[in-house]
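User: Design a sequence. Structure:
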């Protein structure tokens, strides 16, 4: 299709050229012999010159207008390029500042990492030391019950060797033996479980019932009969109460005398402490008051 169009264009061109040459030849042959041919030719040249001059003027006007527009566009573009260059310079400055800031931050992070590494090494050494100490403490604690049992056995052997005085030969405990202030200090420095044991001694003496350390530990939910037995021995030693081991019953004692101030204050002190220390209807208050009820239930009835 394209080759046919090109061929037709070529035929049109040389056909037009031949037609123009024939027209020139015919015109020359027809009007060259005329006397006014030169005048006609001069007029034609003049008109052609005038026409070409007008065309040149219009072309110059159009070209200058386009050039003015182009120069205006070039000025606008130059201004935009200058603004973009200034923005690029500002961006380059910000980039430099950001690079310097990042470099400083990297240095600070590197120093912090080094410090953290040293701290972690120190913490690891400390934890290792604590672990070793815990192992040692665990070994000591695991052997503590055995040692307490051995101590209890030895104390029992010594007591049997020395012999305990009969109950009727022991003088009754009076408030002059220990002051009321000493009883207050005794109650304040004892734990809650030990306060309950002191109250249990009061109940056992009042109800004339034996005090079983095993039953008491179940009531207060504290599996430490050896500690409670040692605390009861200390109470007997400082004459807060008088107790005697019952034959044939392990860790069971007959309480025959109680200090009058302890008998009066044991329950009141415990209840007041619970009410002042714990919030009303809290779990801790209910727990300790429940343990008090269990201890009192050991000595209720016949």
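Assistant: Done.
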């Amino acid at each position: 299709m394209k080759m046919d169009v090109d061929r037709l264009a070529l035929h049109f061109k040389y056909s037009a050229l031949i037609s123009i040459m024939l027209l020139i030849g015919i015109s020359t042959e027809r009007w060259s012999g005329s006397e006014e041919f030169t005048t006609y030719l001069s007029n034609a040249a003049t008109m052609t010159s005038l026409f070409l001059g007008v065309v040149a003027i219009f072309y110059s006007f159009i070209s200058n207008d386009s050039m003015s527009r182009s120069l205006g566009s070039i000025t606008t573009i130059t201004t935009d390029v200058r603004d973009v260059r200034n923005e690029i310079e500002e961006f380059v400055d910000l980039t430099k500042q950001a690079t310097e800031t990042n470099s400083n931050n990297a240095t600070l992070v590197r120093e912090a990492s080094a410090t953290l590494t040293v701290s972690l090494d120190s913490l690891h050494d400390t934890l290792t030391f604590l672990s070793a100490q815990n192992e040692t403490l665990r070994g000591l604690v695991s052997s503590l019950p055995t040692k307490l049992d051995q101590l209890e056995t030895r104390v029992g052997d010594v007591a049997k060797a020395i012999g305990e005085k009969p109950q009727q030969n022991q003088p009754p405990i009076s408030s002059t033996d220990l002051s009321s202030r000493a009883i207050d200090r005794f109650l304040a420095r004892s734990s809650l479980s030990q306060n309950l044991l002191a109250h249990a001694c009061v109940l056992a003496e009042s109800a004339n019932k034996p005090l079983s350390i095993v039953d008491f530990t179940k009531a207060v939910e504290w599996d430490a009969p050896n500690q409670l037995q040692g605390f009861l021995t200390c109470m007997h030693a400082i004459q807060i109460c008088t107790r005697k081991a019952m034959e044939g019953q392990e860790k069971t004692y007959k309480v025959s005398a109680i200090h009058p101030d302890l008998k009066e204050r044991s329950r009141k002190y415990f209840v007041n402490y619970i009410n002042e220390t714990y919030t009303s209807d809290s779990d801790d208050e209910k727990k300790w008051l429940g343990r008090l009820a269990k201890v009192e239930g050991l000595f209720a009835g016949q």
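The two ends are 131 Å apart (CA to CA). The chain has eight helices and three strands.
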